Amino acid sequence: MPYTHPPVTLFLPLLMGAALTLGASFGAQADATLDKIAERHRVVVGVLLSGGPFGSIDPSDQTPKGLNVDMAEDIGRQLGAQVELVPVLPANRVQFLQQGKVDLLIANMEWTAERGQQLGFVPTPFYRVGGTAAVLKDSKITRWEDLKGQPVCTSQGSSYVKPLTEFGAQLKAFKSSSESLLALRGNNCVAAVHDATLINPLVADSAEWKDYRAITPELNPAPSVIWTRPGEADTQARLDTIVKGWHRSGWLIEGEKRHHITPASPALVELHDKFQATGA
Questions:
Q1: Is the pTM of this model over 0.85?
Q2: 227-252 pLDDT, tens per residue?
Q3: Domain assignment present for 149
Q4: Which terminal CB of the chain, N or C, has fewer other CB atoms within 10 Å?
Q5: Low-confidence residues of the chain: pLDDT under 70
Q6: Residue 254 Cα to chain centre, angstroms
Q7: Residue 101 is assigned to a structural domain of this protein
Q8: 139: domain range?
Protein backbone atom coordinates (compact mmCIF):
# COMPACT_ATOMS: atom_id res chain seq x y z
CA MET A 1 0.00 0.00 0.00
CA PRO A 2 1.29 3.50 -0.76
CA TYR A 3 0.54 4.73 2.74
CA THR A 4 2.09 2.17 5.07
CA HIS A 5 4.56 3.32 7.76
CA PRO A 6 7.44 0.82 8.15
CA PRO A 7 10.12 1.80 10.69
CA VAL A 8 12.60 4.16 9.08
CA THR A 9 15.48 1.96 10.24
CA LEU A 10 14.31 -0.68 7.76
CA PHE A 11 15.30 1.71 4.97
CA LEU A 12 18.91 2.08 6.18
CA PRO A 13 20.40 -1.11 4.64
CA LEU A 14 18.57 -0.40 1.38
CA LEU A 15 19.81 3.19 1.24
CA MET A 16 23.36 2.24 2.17
CA GLY A 17 23.45 -0.52 -0.44
CA ALA A 18 22.06 1.74 -3.15
CA ALA A 19 24.55 4.48 -2.30
CA LEU A 20 27.51 2.08 -2.40
CA THR A 21 26.40 0.54 -5.69
CA LEU A 22 25.93 3.93 -7.34
CA GLY A 23 29.20 5.25 -5.91
CA ALA A 24 31.17 2.31 -7.33
CA SER A 25 29.95 3.20 -10.81
CA PHE A 26 31.35 6.75 -10.59
CA GLY A 27 34.54 6.29 -8.55
CA ALA A 28 36.65 8.75 -10.56
CA GLN A 29 34.38 11.63 -9.57
CA ALA A 30 34.34 10.81 -5.87
CA ASP A 31 36.22 13.85 -4.54
CA ALA A 32 34.95 16.56 -6.91
CA THR A 33 32.42 18.34 -4.72
CA LEU A 34 34.19 17.95 -1.38
CA ASP A 35 37.45 19.23 -2.90
CA LYS A 36 35.66 22.19 -4.44
CA ILE A 37 34.04 23.11 -1.13
CA ALA A 38 37.42 22.96 0.62
CA GLU A 39 39.18 25.02 -2.05
CA ARG A 40 36.69 27.89 -2.10
CA HIS A 41 35.65 27.64 1.58
CA ARG A 42 32.02 27.78 0.50
CA VAL A 43 29.24 25.22 0.16
CA VAL A 44 26.30 25.99 -2.13
CA VAL A 45 23.08 24.36 -0.97
CA GLY A 46 19.80 24.24 -2.89
CA VAL A 47 16.86 24.70 -0.52
CA LEU A 48 13.12 24.88 -1.00
CA LEU A 49 11.78 28.14 0.47
CA SER A 50 8.18 28.03 -0.75
CA GLY A 51 6.65 27.87 2.72
CA GLY A 52 6.27 25.66 5.75
CA PRO A 53 8.53 24.79 8.66
CA PHE A 54 11.25 23.22 6.53
CA GLY A 55 11.90 26.28 4.40
CA SER A 56 10.36 29.72 3.98
CA ILE A 57 11.16 33.43 3.93
CA ASP A 58 10.71 35.30 7.21
CA PRO A 59 8.35 38.20 6.35
CA SER A 60 9.85 40.39 9.09
CA ASP A 61 13.36 40.55 7.65
CA GLN A 62 13.20 38.56 4.37
CA THR A 63 15.74 36.00 5.57
CA PRO A 64 15.48 32.24 4.92
CA LYS A 65 14.33 30.12 7.84
CA GLY A 66 13.34 26.53 8.51
CA LEU A 67 14.84 23.16 9.38
CA ASN A 68 16.41 22.75 5.93
CA VAL A 69 18.13 26.11 6.37
CA ASP A 70 19.38 25.08 9.82
CA MET A 71 20.83 21.88 8.38
CA ALA A 72 22.58 23.72 5.55
CA GLU A 73 24.10 26.20 8.00
CA ASP A 74 25.31 23.45 10.34
CA ILE A 75 26.87 21.57 7.44
CA GLY A 76 28.80 24.73 6.59
CA ARG A 77 29.89 25.10 10.20
CA GLN A 78 31.14 21.52 10.39
CA LEU A 79 32.92 21.77 7.03
CA GLY A 80 34.48 25.11 7.96
CA ALA A 81 32.82 26.73 4.95
CA GLN A 82 30.52 29.67 4.32
CA VAL A 83 27.01 28.70 3.25
CA GLU A 84 25.38 30.03 0.10
CA LEU A 85 21.67 29.21 -0.07
CA VAL A 86 20.13 28.91 -3.53
CA PRO A 87 16.32 28.79 -3.68
CA VAL A 88 15.03 25.91 -5.81
CA LEU A 89 11.61 24.60 -6.80
CA PRO A 90 10.38 21.01 -7.23
CA ALA A 91 10.39 21.62 -10.98
CA ASN A 92 14.07 22.62 -11.19
CA ARG A 93 15.88 21.25 -8.14
CA VAL A 94 17.28 18.17 -9.90
CA GLN A 95 18.50 20.25 -12.84
CA PHE A 96 20.23 22.73 -10.50
CA LEU A 97 22.17 19.86 -8.94
CA GLN A 98 22.99 18.15 -12.24
CA GLN A 99 24.14 21.41 -13.83
CA GLY A 100 26.44 22.26 -10.92
CA LYS A 101 24.49 25.31 -9.79
CA VAL A 102 24.42 23.82 -6.28
CA ASP A 103 26.69 21.36 -4.47
CA LEU A 104 23.92 19.72 -2.44
CA LEU A 105 20.16 19.59 -2.24
CA ILE A 106 18.23 19.81 1.04
CA ALA A 107 14.95 20.48 -0.66
CA ASN A 108 12.01 18.38 0.60
CA MET A 109 12.97 15.64 -1.83
CA GLU A 110 12.32 12.17 -0.48
CA TRP A 111 14.24 9.08 -1.54
CA THR A 112 12.75 6.85 -4.22
CA ALA A 113 14.46 4.05 -6.13
CA GLU A 114 14.12 6.04 -9.36
CA ARG A 115 15.72 9.15 -7.87
CA GLY A 116 18.40 6.99 -6.25
CA GLN A 117 19.47 5.74 -9.68
CA GLN A 118 19.60 9.26 -11.09
CA LEU A 119 21.42 11.10 -8.29
CA GLY A 120 23.77 10.50 -5.39
CA PHE A 121 22.55 10.79 -1.81
CA VAL A 122 23.63 10.62 1.82
CA PRO A 123 22.67 7.13 3.08
CA THR A 124 21.36 8.13 6.51
CA PRO A 125 18.01 9.96 6.18
CA PHE A 126 17.47 13.08 8.25
CA TYR A 127 13.67 12.71 8.36
CA ARG A 128 10.74 10.74 7.02
CA VAL A 129 7.67 12.37 5.57
CA GLY A 130 4.62 11.42 3.55
CA GLY A 131 2.00 13.41 1.71
CA THR A 132 -1.40 14.60 2.73
CA ALA A 133 -4.21 16.35 0.90
CA ALA A 134 -5.78 19.63 1.89
CA VAL A 135 -9.52 19.53 1.16
CA LEU A 136 -12.52 21.60 2.20
CA LYS A 137 -14.02 20.52 5.51
CA ASP A 138 -17.37 19.79 3.85
CA SER A 139 -15.73 17.77 1.07
CA LYS A 140 -16.83 14.16 0.63
CA ILE A 141 -13.19 13.19 0.16
CA THR A 142 -12.10 11.21 3.21
CA ARG A 143 -9.61 8.73 1.76
CA TRP A 144 -7.11 8.65 -1.08
CA GLU A 145 -9.30 6.43 -3.24
CA ASP A 146 -11.89 9.23 -3.32
CA LEU A 147 -9.56 11.26 -5.56
CA LYS A 148 -10.27 8.98 -8.54
CA GLY A 149 -11.37 11.10 -11.50
CA GLN A 150 -11.03 14.32 -9.47
CA PRO A 151 -8.83 17.35 -10.32
CA VAL A 152 -5.93 17.37 -7.85
CA CYS A 153 -3.21 20.01 -7.51
CA THR A 154 0.41 19.21 -6.67
CA SER A 155 3.94 20.33 -7.56
CA GLN A 156 5.89 19.43 -10.69
CA GLY A 157 8.48 16.78 -9.87
CA SER A 158 6.65 15.69 -6.72
CA SER A 159 7.13 12.10 -5.54
CA TYR A 160 3.35 11.98 -5.06
CA VAL A 161 2.63 12.20 -8.79
CA LYS A 162 3.00 8.45 -9.32
CA PRO A 163 0.75 7.24 -6.47
CA LEU A 164 -1.85 9.90 -7.26
CA THR A 165 -1.89 8.75 -10.87
CA GLU A 166 -2.36 5.18 -9.65
CA PHE A 167 -5.37 6.35 -7.64
CA GLY A 168 -6.80 7.78 -10.88
CA ALA A 169 -6.56 11.47 -9.94
CA GLN A 170 -6.58 14.08 -12.70
CA LEU A 171 -3.39 15.96 -11.87
CA LYS A 172 -2.67 19.65 -12.23
CA ALA A 173 1.04 20.16 -11.55
CA PHE A 174 2.40 23.59 -10.64
CA LYS A 175 5.95 24.94 -10.30
CA SER A 176 5.63 25.39 -6.55
CA SER A 177 3.47 24.32 -3.63
CA SER A 178 2.35 27.91 -3.10
CA GLU A 179 0.92 28.03 -6.64
CA SER A 180 -0.77 24.67 -6.10
CA LEU A 181 -2.35 25.79 -2.82
CA LEU A 182 -3.50 29.03 -4.42
CA ALA A 183 -5.18 27.00 -7.16
CA LEU A 184 -6.98 24.95 -4.50
CA ARG A 185 -8.29 28.10 -2.85
CA GLY A 186 -9.41 29.29 -6.28
CA ASN A 187 -11.49 26.10 -6.72
CA ASN A 188 -9.33 24.84 -9.58
CA CYS A 189 -9.00 21.48 -7.86
CA VAL A 190 -10.70 19.55 -5.05
CA ALA A 191 -7.47 18.77 -3.21
CA ALA A 192 -3.84 19.87 -3.05
CA VAL A 193 -1.32 17.17 -2.18
CA HIS A 194 2.02 18.06 -0.60
CA ASP A 195 4.22 17.00 2.31
CA ALA A 196 2.23 16.54 5.50
CA THR A 197 4.73 18.81 7.26
CA LEU A 198 3.51 21.66 5.04
CA ILE A 199 -0.23 20.92 5.02
CA ASN A 200 -0.82 19.97 8.66
CA PRO A 201 0.38 23.26 10.23
CA LEU A 202 -1.61 25.25 7.66
CA VAL A 203 -4.95 23.65 8.37
CA ALA A 204 -4.30 23.49 12.12
CA ASP A 205 -3.11 27.03 12.82
CA SER A 206 -3.80 29.36 9.89
CA ALA A 207 -6.97 31.46 9.94
CA GLU A 208 -7.15 31.57 6.15
CA TRP A 209 -7.18 27.75 6.08
CA LYS A 210 -9.87 27.32 8.74
CA ASP A 211 -12.30 25.87 6.19
CA TYR A 212 -9.87 23.10 5.18
CA ARG A 213 -8.73 19.81 6.69
CA ALA A 214 -6.10 17.18 5.93
CA ILE A 215 -6.80 13.56 5.08
CA THR A 216 -4.97 10.59 6.56
CA PRO A 217 -3.03 8.31 6.52
CA GLU A 218 0.06 9.87 4.95
CA LEU A 219 0.69 9.01 1.31
CA ASN A 220 3.95 7.27 0.39
CA PRO A 221 5.95 8.02 3.54
CA ALA A 222 9.63 7.93 2.56
CA PRO A 223 13.06 8.88 3.92
CA SER A 224 14.19 12.47 3.42
CA VAL A 225 17.85 12.57 2.37
CA ILE A 226 20.52 15.07 1.32
CA TRP A 227 21.19 14.77 -2.41
CA THR A 228 24.50 15.00 -4.27
CA ARG A 229 25.65 14.28 -7.78
CA PRO A 230 26.33 10.61 -8.61
CA GLY A 231 29.67 9.25 -7.50
CA GLU A 232 30.46 11.89 -4.89
CA ALA A 233 31.40 9.15 -2.44
CA ASP A 234 33.65 11.25 -0.20
CA THR A 235 31.05 14.00 0.02
CA GLN A 236 28.34 11.50 0.91
CA ALA A 237 30.54 9.84 3.56
CA ARG A 238 31.45 13.17 5.18
CA LEU A 239 27.83 14.33 5.24
CA ASP A 240 26.67 10.95 6.52
CA THR A 241 28.87 11.44 9.58
CA ILE A 242 27.22 14.82 10.15
CA VAL A 243 23.67 13.44 9.80
CA LYS A 244 24.41 10.56 12.18
CA GLY A 245 25.74 13.11 14.67
CA TRP A 246 22.52 15.11 14.40
CA HIS A 247 20.52 12.00 15.27
CA ARG A 248 22.82 10.86 18.05
CA SER A 249 22.76 14.25 19.81
CA GLY A 250 19.02 14.84 19.35
CA TRP A 251 19.75 18.02 17.35
CA LEU A 252 17.08 17.19 14.77
CA ILE A 253 14.47 16.46 17.44
CA GLU A 254 15.23 19.88 18.95
CA GLY A 255 14.95 21.47 15.50
CA GLU A 256 11.60 19.80 14.90
CA LYS A 257 10.30 21.34 18.14
CA ARG A 258 11.87 24.73 17.43
CA HIS A 259 10.14 24.98 14.06
CA HIS A 260 6.84 23.55 15.37
CA ILE A 261 6.81 20.67 12.88
CA THR A 262 3.71 18.59 13.51
CA PRO A 263 2.95 15.82 14.01
CA ALA A 264 6.31 14.87 15.51
CA SER A 265 8.11 12.26 13.43
CA PRO A 266 8.55 8.81 15.01
CA ALA A 267 11.49 8.38 12.61
CA LEU A 268 13.57 10.92 14.53
CA VAL A 269 13.09 9.00 17.77
CA GLU A 270 13.94 5.70 16.03
CA LEU A 271 17.14 7.11 14.55
CA HIS A 272 18.13 8.92 17.75
CA ASP A 273 17.82 5.67 19.70
CA LYS A 274 19.67 3.68 17.02
CA PHE A 275 22.72 5.93 16.81
CA GLN A 276 22.91 6.52 20.54
CA ALA A 277 22.90 2.78 21.10
CA THR A 278 25.44 1.91 18.40
CA GLY A 279 27.62 5.01 18.64
CA ALA A 280 27.93 4.79 14.84
A1: no
A2: 999 999 999 999 999 999 999 999 99
A3: yes
A4: N
A5: 1-31, 280
A6: 18
A7: yes
A8: 130-220
